[in-house]
C-alpha cells in the first residue's frame, strides 16, 4: 500500500516537473524544473532497489547536467526573453500530436501484454561491491571506452566552446 | 513491493512522450536538449524496471547499462551545449528554426 | 619449205617490232624511225621472196599453235605457206617498201614524221599477218588491226575536222561489214568446230572425206559482208573517197594497193566455202560497183577523188572476176591493180607536191613539160588502168575478167556492165590526164610547178616497170600466174592468143578503150587552154546527169537522212533514257535515302532525345521535390523519426495479426 502511494507521489513529481520543464517560458525555470524531474526519477530508482544508480542519477543529472543547462541558458541569454518572440516553434501543432501518438502506441503495446502485469522478485540486492566487480571483469571494455569517450567529449567541448580570435569573427559569413 | 511492472513502464512512456513533445514544440535549442535528456531518462527507467522485475536480477545487466547510459548522456549534453553556445556566438540567436542552412 | 615455215612468223613480226619501238621514239629521231620501218619491211620482203621460192616447188604447209584453252576445247592459231599467201606477201612487202621510201621525200617537211612511220609499220605488220594467217580468227584480228591502222592514218592530220570525220566514217562503215563477218565466223565455228583453214584435213577449208566440203550460202554471204565493207563495194563504198583526206602515200598503200584488196583476198582465201549462189551475189555486186563508181568518177574534180572512185570500180571488177572466173582471175587483177594504182597515186602525190598542195585538176594544166618523169610514169599507169592492149598489164588482167564474165553461166548482164565500166574508165582517165598534164597552166602554182626529188621519182619508175612487166605473167599465151595459183604446169603457147574464145572479147575491149580515149581527148584535150573556173563541157551538155554524178548519186545524203538520222534519234532516246529515266530512278533512290535520313534524325531528336530528356527531367524533378523534405529544420527530422517509430511499432505488434 505504502509502496504504491510512494510510487504515485514520485511519479507525479517527475511528470509535473517534466511538463513544467517543457512548457515554461523562462528557460532558467525550465532547467530547474527539469532538475526536479530528474530528482523524482532518482527517488523511483531508489524504490526499485537500484541505490547506486539512483545516487549516480542525482550526482550526474541533477548535480552536473542541470547546472550545465543553466550555464548554457545564461550564456545564450535565454533568461531574458523578449515578450514579442514566440516561445514555440512554428510547427508546434504538428509536434504535439506526434508525441501523443508515440505515447499512445507505447501505452497500447504495454497494455496489450499481460506478462507485464507481474509483480517484482523479492530480496533483490545490488551491492556496490558487486557492481564494481562486474565493471572490472565483465564490463571492463565498455568502461575503458566510456572513459575514452568522456575524454574526447571534454576536449571537444573545450575546443568548440573556445572563443575565437577577433579578426576571424569578422570574416565569418 | 506491490506495484506491477506495467506502472513503471507507463510512467516511462509518459515521460518519453513529454520529452518528445517538448523537443518538437519549443523553439529554443536548449529546450530541445532538455527534452532529449528526459527521453534518455525515460529509457533508463525502462531498463531499471525491467532489471528489477527480471528472473535473474543478480546478473545486474540492466544496472550496468544504465550506468553507462548516464555517462554517455553526460558527455552528449556537454558537447551539445558547447555547440549551442558556439552557434549562439555566430548567429546571436539560439532559436532552432533560424538554423536552416543545411537544407537540400 | 620446213626451214622457211619456221621463220614465217618473222614476216609480220619485224614491222610490228619496228612500230613498237617507233611508238616510243621522240619526234626528233626521224631518221631512226624511218630507218627502222624501212629496214623491217626489207627483211619482210626478203623473207617473203624466200617463201615464194619455196612454194614454187611444193604446195602448202601450215604451222599451227595453240593460243588458249577453255573447257575441253582450245583455240588455235597458225601460219600457212601456200601460193596465194606467198604471192600476196611478196606484193604487199614490195609495194610497202617502195611507198616507205617515197614517204621519206613526201613527208620530209611533216612535223609528225616519226608517228607516220610508226603507223605505216603497224599497218604493214597487220597486212602481212592477214595474208599469212591460217586461222580465220587470226585473220580477223589482223583485219581489225589493218582497219585501226587505216583509221590512224586517214586521221593523221587530226586537227583538220574533215580528216577526223573521214577517219571515223571509214572505221564505222567498215565496222558494219565486220559485223556480218563476225556472225559468219561464229556460224562457221558452230558448224565445223574449228577456225583453222588447213589442219591436216581437219581445217574448215579442208575437204573432209566423210562429209564433203562445208559450204553454206549464209556463211559465205556473211563473210562477204566483211569484204563489202573493207573493199568498198556498194552500199558500203562511201568511206573510200573520204579516206583521201589522209596523206597521199597512205592513199597509195592502203586505199589502193593493199588494204582494200584485203576483202578480195578474203574471198579468195575462203573460196571453198563459197556456194554458187553466193558467187552469183558476189559477181552482181562487183559488176554494179564497177559501173556505179566509174560513172561518178567522170564528174569529179579532185585528182585523188577520181583515183579513189577508180579504185572502187576496179575492186568491183576484182569481185566480178572472183565470182565469175575463180581465184586466179580475181587475184591477177588484184596484183596488176596494186602496181598501177599505187603508181597513179604516187604520181598524183608528186603532182600535188609540185603544185604546192593543190589538188583540183581544174587548177593544173601543162605539167607535162614541168614534171617530165612524173608525166611519163603517170601515163604508163593510166594506160595500164585503161587497159591499153598488149604492153600494159591492166589489159591482160581486165581482159581475163571480161572473158570470164562472157563465159559465165549466170547471166550476160555483168559482162555488159563490165564493158561499160571499161569505157567509162578510159574516158575519165583521159579527162584527168588532159586536164592535169596537157594544155596551158591555169594558175600561178601550176606555172611554177617543180619536179619531185629522186627519192620520190625512183619508186615511180620501178612501179611503172612493174605495171608493164607484171602483165606478162598472166597472158593466155603463158598463164603462169593462173597455174601457179591453181596448180599444174604452164606452157608457153602463143596460139592461145588467137583462141576463138578469147580473141573477140579482146578486140571488143580494145575498140571500146580506143573510142573512149579518142572521144575524151577530143573534148578535153582540145579545150585545154580554157581558164580554171569554166564549167565542164559535159556539164554544159547534160547538166542534170552531171549534177547527179558529181554529187555521187546523193548516196551520202541518203544515208545521212535514213541511217544516220535513225542512229542519232536512237542515241538521243538512249541518252534520255539514261539521264531522265535511269537518272531519275537513281535520284528517286537518293531522295528516298535523304527522306529516310531526315525521318531518322527527326525521330532521333523528337523521340529518343525527348524521351531521354523527359526521363532526366523526371529524375531531376523528383529529386527536387524530395529534397524539399530537407529544410534544415531539425525538429521536422525528429518529428519524422517519431512518426516512423510509431509506424514500426504498430507494424511489429499488430501487423502480423
Describe it for me?
- The complex is a heterotrimer of chains A (173), B (104) and C (657).
- By secondary structure, chain A is mainly α.
- Among the domains of chain A are: 1-79, Four Helix Bundle (Hemerythrin (Met), subunit A), CATH 1.20.120.1200; 127-159.
- In chain A, 73% of the residues lie in helices and 0% in strands.
- Chain A has 7 helices and no strands.
- In chain A, helix 1 runs antiparallel to helix 2.
- Chain A is globular and about 60 Å long.
- Chain A starts with a helix and ends with a helix.
- The relative contact order of chain A is 0.06.
- Chain B starts with a helix and ends in a 13-residue tail after the last helix.
- Chain B has helices spanning 5-25, 29-52, 61-91.
- The longest helix of chain B has 31 residues, at 61-91.
- The mean pLDDT of chain B is 90.
- Chain B is elongated, with a radius of gyration of 17 Å.
- Chain B is an all-alpha fold and 104 residues long.
- Chain C is an all-alpha fold.
- Chain C is 71% helix and 3% strand.
- Chain C has helices at residues 2-6, 10-24, 30-55, 83-106, 113-132, 136-154, 161-192, 217-230, 239-242, 248-257, 261-269, 276-297, 303-325, 327-354, 367-370, 372-386, 393-406, 413-437, 444-447, 454-469, 480-486, 503-526, 537-541, 543-550, 555-627, 634-654; strands at residues 61-70, 73-81.
- In chain C, strands 1-2 form a two-stranded antiparallel sheet.
- The termini of chain C are far apart.
- Classes of the chains: A mainly alpha (173), B mainly alpha (104), C mainly alpha (657).
- Chains in contact: A-B, A-C, B-C.
- Chains A and B meet through helix 1, helix 2, helix 3, helix 4 and helix 5 of A and helix 1, helix 2 and helix 3 of B.
Amino acid at each position: 500500500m505504502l509502496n504504491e502511494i510512494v510510487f504515485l507521489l514520485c511519479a507525479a513529481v517527475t511528470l509535473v516537473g517534466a511538463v513544467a520543464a517543457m512548457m515554461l517560458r523562462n528557460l532558467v525555470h525550465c532547467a530547474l524544473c527539469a532538475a526536479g524531474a530528474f530528482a523524482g526519477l532518482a527517488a523511483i530508482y531508489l524504490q526499485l532497489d537500484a541505490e547506486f544508480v539512483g545516487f549516480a542519477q542525482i550526482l550526474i543529472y541533477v548535480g552536473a547536467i542541470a547546472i550545465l543547462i543553466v550555464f548554457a541558458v545564461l550564456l545564450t541569454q535565454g533568461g531574458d526573453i523578449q515578450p514579442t518572440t514566440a516561445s514555440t516553434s512554428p510547427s508546434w501543432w504538428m509536434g504535439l500530436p506526434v508525441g501523443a501518438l508515440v505515447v499512445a502506441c507505447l501505452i497500447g503495446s504495454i497494455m496489450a501484454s499481460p506478462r507485464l502485469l507481474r509483480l517484482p522478485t523479492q530480496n533483490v540486492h545490488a551491492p556496490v561491491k558487486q557492481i564494481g566487480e562486474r565493471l572490472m571483469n565483465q564490463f571492463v571494455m565498455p568502461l575503458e571506452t566510456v572513459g575514452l569517450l568522456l575524454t574526447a567529449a571534454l576536449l571537444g567541448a573545450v575546443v568548440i566552446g573556445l572563443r575565437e580570435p577577433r579578426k576571424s569573427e569578422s570574416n565569418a559569413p | 513491493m506491490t506495484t506491477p511492472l506495467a506502472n513503471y513502464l507507463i510512467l516511462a512512456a509518459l515521460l518519453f512522450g513529454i520529452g518528445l513533445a517538448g523537443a518538437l514544440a519549443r523553439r529554443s535549442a536548449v529546450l530541445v536538449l532538455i527534452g532529449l535528456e528526459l527521453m534518455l531518462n525515460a529509457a533508463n527507467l525502462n531498463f531499471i524496471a525491467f532489471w528489477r522485475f527480471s528472473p535473474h536480477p543478480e546478473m545486474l545487466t540492466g544496472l550496468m547499462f544504465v550506468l553507462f547510459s548516464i555517462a554517455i548522456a553526460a558527455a552528449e549534453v556537454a558537447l551539445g551545449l558547447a555547440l549551442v553556445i558556439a552557434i549562439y556566438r555566430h548567429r546571436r540567436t539560439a532559436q532552432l528554426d533560424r538554423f536552416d542552412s543545411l537544407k537540400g | 619449205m620446213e626451214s622457211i615455215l619456221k621463220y614465217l612468223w618473222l614476216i609480220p613480226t619485224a614491222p610490228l617490232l619496228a612500230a613498237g619501238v617507233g611508238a616510243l621514239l621522240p619526234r626528233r629521231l626521224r631518221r631512226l624511225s624511218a630507218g627502222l620501218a624501212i629496214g623491217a619491211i626489207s627483211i619482210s620482203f626478203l623473207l617473203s621472196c624466200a617463201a615464194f621460192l619455196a612454194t614454187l616447188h611444193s604446195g602448202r604447209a601450215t604451222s599451227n599453235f595453240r593460243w588458249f584453252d577453255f573447257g575441253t576445247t582450245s583455240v588455235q592459231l597458225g601460219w600457212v605457206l601456200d601460193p596465194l599467201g606467198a604471192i600476196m606477201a611478196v606484193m604487199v612487202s614490195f609495194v610497202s617498201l617502195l611507198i616507205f621510201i617515197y614517204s621519206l621525200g613526201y613527208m620530209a617537211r611533216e612535223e609528225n614524221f616519226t608517228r607516220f612511220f610508226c603507223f605505216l609499220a603497224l599497218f604493214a605488220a597487220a597486212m602481212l599477218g592477214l595474208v599469212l594467217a591460217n586461222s580465220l580468227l587470226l585473220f580477223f584480228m589482223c583485219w581489225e588491226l589493218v582497219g585501226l591502222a587505216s583509221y590512224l592514218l586517214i586521221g593523221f592530220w587530226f586537227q583538220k575536222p574533215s580528216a577526223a570525220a573521214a577517219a571515223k566514217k571509214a572505221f564505222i562503215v567498215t565496222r558494219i561489214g565486220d559485223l556480218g563477218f563476225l556472225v559468219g565466223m561464229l556460224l562457221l565455228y558452230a558448224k565445223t568446230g574449228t577456225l583453222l583453214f588447213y589442219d591436216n584435213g581437219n581445217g574448215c577449208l579442208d575437204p573432209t572425206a566423210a562429209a564433203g566440203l562445208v559450204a553454206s550460202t549464209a556463211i559465205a554471204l556473211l563473210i562477204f559482208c566483211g569484204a563489202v565493207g573493207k573493199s568498198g563495194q556498194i552500199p558500203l563504198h562511201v568511206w573510200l573517197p573520204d579516206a583521201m583526206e589522209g596523206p597521199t602515200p597512205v592513199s597509195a598503200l592502203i586505199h589502193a594497193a593493199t588494204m582494200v584488196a584485203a576483202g578480195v583476198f578474203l574471198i579468195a582465201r575462203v573460196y571453198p566455202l563459197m556456194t554458187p549462189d553466193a558467187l552469183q551475189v558476189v559477181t552482181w555486186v562487183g559488176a554494179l560497183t564497177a559501173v556505179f563508181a566509174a560513172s561518178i568518177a567522170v564528174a569529179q574534180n579532185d585528182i585523188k577523188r577520181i583515183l579513189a572512185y577508180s579504185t572502187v570500180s576496179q575492186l568491183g571488177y576484182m569481185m566480178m572476176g572472183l565470182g565469175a572466173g575463180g581465184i586466179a582471175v580475181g587475184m591477177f587483177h588484184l596484183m596488176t591493180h596494186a602496181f598501177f594504182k599505187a603508181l597513179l597515186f604516187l604520181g598524183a602525190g608528186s603532182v600535188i607536191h609540185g603544185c604546192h598542195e593543190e589538188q583540183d585538176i581544174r587548177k593544173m594544166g601543162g605539167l607535162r613539160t614541168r614534171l617530165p618523169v612524173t608525166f611519163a610514169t603517170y601515163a604508163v599507169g593510166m594506160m595500164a588502168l585503161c587497159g591499153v592492149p598488149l604492153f600494159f598489164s591492166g589489159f591482160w588482167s581486165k581482159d581475163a575478167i571480161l572473158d570470164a564474165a562472157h563465159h559465165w553461166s549466170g547471166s550476160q548482164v555483168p559482162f555488159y556492165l563490165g564493158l561499160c565500166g571499161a569505157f567509162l574508165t578510159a574516158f575519165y582517165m583521159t579527162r584527168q590526164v588532159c586536164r592535169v598534164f596537157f594544155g596551158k597552166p591555169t594558175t600561178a602554182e601550176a606555172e611554177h610547178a617543180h619536179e619531185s626529188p629522186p627519192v620520190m621519182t625512183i619508186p615511180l619508175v620501178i612501179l611503172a616497170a612493174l605495171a608493164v612487166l607484171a602483165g606478162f605473167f598472166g597472158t593466155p599465151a603463158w598463164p603462169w600466174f593462173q597455174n601457179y595459183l591453181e596448180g599444174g604446169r604452164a606452157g608457153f603457147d602463143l596460139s592461145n592468143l588467137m583462141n576463138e574464145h578469147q580473141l573477140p572479147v579482146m578486140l571488143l575491149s580494145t575498140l571500146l578503150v580506143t573510142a573512149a580515149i579518142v572521144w575524151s581527148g577530143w573534148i578535153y584535150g582540145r579545150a585545154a587552154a580554157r581558164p580554171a573556173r569554166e564549167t565542164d563541157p559535159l556539164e554544159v551538155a547534160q547538166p542534170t546527169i552531171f549534177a547527179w554524178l558529181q554529187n555521187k548519186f546523193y548516196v551520202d545524203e541518203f544515208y545521212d537522212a535514213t541511217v544516220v538520222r535513225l542512229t542519232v534519234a536512237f542515241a538521243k532516246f538512249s541518252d534520255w533514257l539514261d539521264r531522265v529515266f535511269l537518272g531519275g530512278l537513281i535520284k528517286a533512290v537518293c531522295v528516298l535515302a535523304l527522306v529516310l535520313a531526315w525521318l531518322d534524325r527527326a525521330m532521333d531528336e523528337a523521340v529518343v532525345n525527348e524521351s531521354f530528356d523527359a526521363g532526366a527531367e523526371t529524375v531531376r524533378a523528383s529529386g527536387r521535390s524530395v529534397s524539399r523534405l530537407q529544410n534544415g529544420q531539425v525538429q521536422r527530422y525528429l518529428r519524422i523519426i517519431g512518426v516512423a517509430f510509431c509506424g514500426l511499432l504498430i507494424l511489429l505488434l499488430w501487423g502480423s495479426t
